[in-house]
# Entry
Amino acid sequence: MTMASRTTSGAPAVPADAGDESELAPLLRKAAAAKQQPGQQSGGIVMATVTAAEAEDGFCEVTSMDGHRTLRCRRAASCLLLPAPGDTVMVAGPHDEALYLIAVVAQADSSQATLAVDGDLRLQSRQGGIAIQGAGAIELQSDTAVATRSPQWTLAAERAQCTVSELDYQGAEVRFSVLVSRFVGRACEVVLDRLHLLTRSSFRITEEVEQVRAGQIDMQASRTLRLHAKNTLVTSRELVKVDAEQIHMG
# Structure
């Protein structure tokens, strides 16, 4: 009886969960479509183009490669290269409100690049050296001070130019080995315990007054000593001695 009653309905057998599946299918399709809508991505890496460089708040604007999304992101700490408008970058984050520019893939203008950080920057090599080499000029600029400290400092250049408003040098010993030396200035003050000067020829011109104050002066010439002036005065408090084989006066 039971078998007959089940087959007399004339309708094919339907699985018990078929109705439930037909009711859930539209809901699943709507959820999948909602995930694919622009601006609703939950995360991942996006290739984009920089439209506006970093502002004062540290954010920059980028446009996705498909052109459908405009995002605001902060440059990641590991990305030291400062992005510029037109650069191709990689953007990643958990959601659109927390996106980071993690790398600059290609520069719009590869002729110049800027490494920028917000705080202090330190380059350190624990065991090796650090070399900076450029085909063009290398410039060091600071708003406060530039300091170098090393057991040995070597400078080699074809030509050097130094412009300093005030220089204070302290050292134990200085050596100069030059072919030609020229000093041009308004005043020169030298304070020494001893001055030792050796020259093959010495020539000095004083336009106005030259004064010498000394406890004892000893002048000796191997051949000729000549004193000539419009007026010559030789005075002494105690003794004036003139000694020679011949003395001509007048």
The helical segments are 2-7, 18-35. The longest strand covers residues 44-52.
